[in-house]
Amino acid sequence: MSDSVNSTKDLPETGITPGGTTGAFRDVLSKDHARRGKPPLHFADMTEDERIAKAKDLGLPKFRVKQLANHYYGHFDVAAEEFSDFPAAKRAEAAEAFFPTLITEVTRQVADEGTTIKTLWRLFDGSLIESVLMRYPTRTTLCISSQVGCGMGCPFCATGQLGLTRNMSAGEILEQVRVAAKAMHDGEVAGGLGRLSNIVFMGMGEPMGNYKSVLSAVRQISAMPPEGFGISARNITVSTVGVVPGIKKLTAEGIPVRLAVSLHAPSDELRDELVPMNKRFNTTQVLDAAHDYYLASKRRVSIEYALMRGINDQAEHAKLLAKRLNHYGDNWAHVNPIPLNPIEGSKWTASKPEDEQQFLDILHKAGITATLRDTRGQDIDGACGQLAAKEQD
Ligand code: SF4
């Protein structure tokens, strides 16, 4: 996280760039980007030592912290008032000290016969964020937000239009996961009892812009209970629009999460227009870093590519993309062309089906693995790039 951003009074902490210097990328800030104070400290935000110290303040011995961790990570439970293995006199205090309410459901939209659920959440300061649960026959994926809004300013994206309000805390990020895991565990999602199996950081925000909290959340999602929710790191996807220092840091962590890079264009000329961050880190720098991630993690990198009619979806674009990827060798990337979901009042529209097909065919012929990404949740505005946190009446 950049100190110069943190020390600049009217800027939120973005963690991406110092901003303001020649050539630096600056986050696009929302109208209400001013700092709003920090979210209440939650069990998930505390180190083990901090938890023990807090428990001590409440007159609780160390082993009580382990009990709380078992409830939180093992049973997705924060209702400390009802923890029957906990001293009755201390339950309310423990609930308040460790499990403040960080996210409150505002609305819930359901599609695909109850198997896609988009939830709008209000945070402690009134900020709105969203998460989307998608249940499939063999897996259940939750798409989560890591920032309020997004500062990357991609012109075709609803979230980008909002600008960045602030980073979310690890607790706020994790609470989206806990609530969804509990709903699956309790059989509240169509299809009966189940298990939340996959997490994608593709909701609101640029995860690398909030690296510290995102990484803390990744660790707590993937660790086995009572240290975490026990969702394999291999089933977690961290996406980025191409913040190269973030990709490098993630490579060095050695956690086998999948990396997804939102490329959206095969050349700098076009990408400069679609993804402003490209002016800071160009396609060569981004692809180099992504390929290094593949080499270090042995996990194929997802290349996300929103197909926009007449802009980046023609044969020449597919050919250039194939060439750029094949430059690094075979089979290291998986391209996910995504039909763009047009946002209201936008000049960017979805590709024609025949152009989508042609794009895929060209990639396949060049030996690139590519599958048209599922745009589940489209009828509730829940596909990627559309999480604009609109409060419904
Ligand atoms: S496409 Fe991704 S990085 Fe770009 S503005 Fe939207 S959410 Fe941010």
Automatic annotation (TrEMBL):
Enzyme class (EC, first level): transferase
Protein name: Probable dual-specificity RNA methyltransferase RlmN
Residues noted as binding [4Fe-4S] cluster in the record, renumbered to the chain: C150, C154, C157
Primary location group: cytoplasm
Residues that bind S-adenosyl-L-methionine: G205, E206, S239, S262, L263, H264, N341
Record-listed E.C. numbers: 2.1.1.192
Biological process per Gene Ontology, one example term: rRNA base methylation
UniProt-annotated location(s): Cytoplasm
Keyword Metal-binding: yes
Cofactor note: Binds 1 [4Fe-4S] cluster. The cluster is coordinated with 3 cysteines and an exchangeable S-adenosyl-L-methionine.
Cofactor(s), by name: [4Fe-4S] cluster
Any one annotated GO CC term: cytoplasm
